[in-house]
Amino acid sequence: MISRRTFLGAAPLGLAALSQPARATTYFTGATVRQALFPSATQFVDRSVTLTSAQAKAISKASAARVSKSKVAVWEARGANGKLGTMFIDQVYGKHEFITYAVALGPEGDVRQIEIMDYRETYGDQIRIPKWRAQFSGKRHGQPLKFTKDVKNISGATLSCLHITDGIRRLLATYALVIAQG
Known about the structure:
182 residues, alpha+beta, seven-stranded antiparallel sheet, disordered N terminus
């Protein structure tokens, strides 16, 4: 027979286990995502920046997306003939957990590819569907990129879709206002 004390002592552990995500999946590491986004690159030059408060405010205004971190992880992909493009690694919240994703921009700042690196939510990972991610291809800062109008929603992944869209719009503004100027 289980004593009342043993049962009650186990309850917090059981509740903690229930509140954890059912799955957390890593699809790419930093090294593997670089290879996937820029397979012909021979070099990645770290161009990470720490935004000033004025830059963060300008990016937020230009993108209509909140800038929550001043540090922006950026790399320039280089090949035999020079610059191939720019890669960002960023995080946004899904519903409860962070989603880590990478965005590859071409030399002119247009979205070439998006990859989900880590997905920690219990559901909503349909944002990994290539057709959904392809909606961003060719987009640049200043072009329409409004959730549910220019970027379709996925039922069951609404917050993930919304926050990835906001994040990409923010990164495009960061590229245009800070990285390309630099």
